[in-house]
Amino acid sequence: MKNYIFNHVLTLHKSTNRFTYFYRGMFYFCLSLSIFSLLLLKSFPSNAKEEHLQEGIAADIIRFHVIANSDSEKDQALKLEIKQVLTDELRPKLEQVKDIDKARTILKNNLEEMVLTANRIIKENGFDYTARASLEQGYFPLKVYGDLSLPPGQYEAVKVELGAAAGQNWWCVMFPPLCFVDATYSVVPDSSKADLKYLLTDEEYKAVFRNDTKVKVKFKLLSLIKDALKD
């Protein structure tokens, strides 16, 4: 009986040790992975240059986001209806604008009107929530719009939030007015590229339109790591 108890305790002890080693190994693996990710982030020799480019790009554009109440089919459909009406209303006000300060003033002056329009459409569709609109700075991950790639970082954006704003968002570039380009295009039209070329430096322009997979992967990795660090 004593031998049975001793063997049972010994087996339990070995089993406990195996679990301890397993979790300890997992801990060191996760720690090593985190350190590797941080080192990888720092190892990019052009990281400072990429951040400088992003800041330059962000200084010349204003983004536009409409965030749905939820991911339900009806809420998502309502989001698309509202974005279409808002962009149609803003089109004549922004199409000929070449200065970001003027565009910013126009958008600020129209925030209340955007809310009224959105609330009217919400009510017409039988929903009881309301909309909010703001012009603010915020962090955005890598975004691709046709053959245009916007690197992750801080951007100024008009944000229209519908209800709980817990659903997927629709986005575009409000200034220069890429929002008025057909979303089904696989590339940004030459006319819109000309607007960007007018605003951006040659280096910034090449950065957003270079179809370099390595660059996009790099931007995506930077975005994922920064998101993880924020959490």
What's the overall geometry?
Answer: globular
Secondary structural class:
alpha+beta
E-strand count: 6
Helix-strand topology string: HHEHHHEEEEEHHH
How many angstroms separate the termini?
Answer: 54 Å
- Physical arrangement of strands within the biggest beta sheet: 2-5-1-6
User: What is the count of DSSP helices, taking H or I runs of 4+ residues?
Assistant: 8
* Quaternary structure classification: single chain
Give a quick precis of the structure:
The protein has helices spanning 2-43, 47-58, 73-94, 100-109, 111-124, 190-199, 202-209, 213-230; strands at 62-67, 131-140, 143-145, 148-150, 153-162, 169-175. It has 231 residues and is α+β, with helices and mostly antiparallel strands.
Overview of the molecule:
The chain has 231 residues and is an alpha+beta fold. The chain has helices spanning 2-43, 47-58, 73-94, 100-109, 111-124, 190-199, 202-209, 213-230; strands at 62-67, 131-140, 143-145, 148-150, 153-162, 169-175. The strands form 2 sheets. The chain has a 4-stranded mixed sheet. Helix 3 packs antiparallel against helix 5.
